Amino acid sequence: MQRIEHIYINGEFVIPNGQEWFDLHNPSTEEVIGQVRLGDALDAQRAIAAAKAAFPAWALTSREERIEALRRMHRAVAAKEEELLEAILVEYGAPMARGRSMATYAADVIAQAINVLEAFEFEEQVGMARVILTPLGVTGLITPWNSNAGFICNKLATALAAGCTAVIKPSEMSALQTQVVVRALHEAGLPPGVFNIVNGRGNVVGEEIARHPDVAKISFTGSSAIGQHLVKTGADTMKRVTLELGGKSPTVVLDDADFQAVMPLVLQAGFLNSGQACIAGTRILVPRSRLAEFERIAKEGVSQIQSGDPRNADTDIGPMVSQKQWERVQRYIRIGQEEGARLLSGGEGRPEGLHAGWFVKPTIFTEANNRMRIAREEIFGPVLTIIPYEDDADAISIANDTDYGLSALVLGKSPERCMNLALQIDSGRVLINTLAHEPRAPFGGFKQSGLGREMGRWGMSAYLEPKTLVTYDPLK
Ligand code: NAD
Question: Per its record, what are the GO molecular function terms (predicted)?
Fold first, then answer.
């Protein structure tokens, strides 16, 4: 049983003022595997003060100095890959292959920030003005539990690359991962105060960061409800905000698609990260004329998908992160049936043979319509909804009839037709016949899926403020 007592402020591991201990669970067994001591508002204030004091010097560092610091961070985080993998498996329950990619992503994303910084244009001449992009100041970085280490590293590396300093409020449910990352970052030997990490509750530490006048910007990944709250709270001090929120992403299967060939992509997109992915393709739009054929192939496909022990190499879907999340998913499975959608596979309860752990059966509803709650609300578990459509125009209209707009997948034989459809879907990202991720491109959502973008030069710009300099030279 691990007890994580320290938070990280001004280059040191310190005991927080906060007194509360929070239980950490292994979602595969439901056992308590550790405890983390949570910081409070005073701890957040101390961290913000340290980041504020460190900002002027860090903002003046050269591109080369920042690249050197980020390289040290990259090496230190990469060296902890195995430890991070173990923390992800035990505390989050990601299946082995997914856990491995999450563990490597934490270092990869720092390397990507280095690439962005190497090529970034901080200055531009516009007519007689020199426009300089200047770092915003202290940033508050708030992460969720579904990829905590990766989000910490991405947000922090980008903030530091831009010349900002940071206070990180990680998910309180991911303290083992946070602990591995913070030890690595400490070893990287950055100047004290440049980054600070305060474990704590969202409504305590997160709230203090959101309201504090010395925080210039919030970068938040999490639910749309908290995202909206942060915009309101931040408005009092006119904080800049970047929000990466929820989704209800459509997978549009065109009537010329080879269903057998595309089914692995449909299921992977839907069950990504055990269904606990903001970009999961949870609304599957299928031509009504070929619905029965699609259902048959989907049923076959899902029967091959294993939900169970994340350490088993054959497992595709691990447990839900918490009992609360498990109950939420069960509730939605009941709601879908009450609404009149037909269960094609899965359903309530644990998968056969599993008596403990927050495991869910991979579940697919069919004959649903887009007005149902299972088609409109983010479930955040392995529950997919097939919605039949009449023609391409109907598919586009259903795809866009949502409060969200984070990601979409279009599957079909004709590249022109797929592209034509993709251009009409209101979404921050549309993938065509692939699930490939391009880290140099902007990532973020339309509508209630977010505000602003992360990744690439767009992500970096979000930590910078343009300053216009116009000079009068009396000698000219
Ligand atoms: P959440 O919104 O409850 O919590 C996210 C983080 O915000 C946590 O660290 C939490 O402690 C903190 N928080 C909670 N209340 C706060 C407050 N009042 N002020 C400041 N911070 C507060 O979300 P979650 O349950 O941890 O994560 C699941 C949600 O995140 C899903 O809705 C999912 O779609 C979304 N998500 C989005 C992306 C994306 O990139 N778009 C990625 C992952 C998760």
Answer: aldehyde dehydrogenase (NAD+) activity
- Which helix (H) or strand (E) segment is 179 a member of? helix 175-187
| Residue 475, pLDDT score | 83
Residue nearest to atom 26 of ligand 1 (CA): 144
Separation CA 117–CA 66 (nearest Å): 9
Exactly one of 244, 295, 378, 454 is catalytic; name it.
Answer: 244
- Please tell me the distance from the alpha carbon of residue 425 to that of residue 448, in angstroms, as a whole number: 15
Per-residue pLDDT of 260-304, as tens digits, reads: 999 999 999 999 999 999 999 999 999 999 999 999 999 999 999
Domains belonging to the chain, first-starting first, are: 2-245+449-468 (3.40.605.10), 250-432 (3.40.309.10)
Tens-digit pLDDT profile for residues 154-177: 999 999 999 999 999 999 999 999
Q: What's the mean pLDDT in 206-216?
A: 98
Reply yes or no on whether the pLDDT at 349 is more than 80. Answer: yes
Q: Catalytic site residue 20? A: no
Ligand 1 touching residue 229 (CB < 6 A): yes
What lies within 8 Å, CB to CB, of 92 at 6+ separation is 27, 99, 145, 146, 148, 174, 177, 318, 321
319 token code pair: 């447990």
CA of 99 to the centre of ligand 1 (A): 20
Backbone angles phi, psi at 217, to 5 degrees: -150, 145
Q: What percent of the chain shows pLDDT beyond 90?
A: 99
pLDDT digits (tens, 9 = 90+) for 403-437: 999 999 999 999 999 999 999 999 999 999 999 99
Give strand pairing partners of 388: 286
Residue 122: exposure state from Cβ atoms within 10 A (0-12, 13-18, ≥19)? middle
How many A from CA of 170 to the centre of ligand 1?
A: 10
Instruction: Decide: 317 in ligand 1 pocket, CB within 6 A.
Output: no
Find tokens 């400490």 and name the residue. 186
**pLDDT, tens digit, for every residue of 357-369?**
999 999 999 999 9
CA of 221 to the centre of ligand 1 (A): 5
Residue closest via CA to ligand 1's atom 37 equals 245
Nearest atom in ligand 1 to the alpha carbon of residue 233 is 19
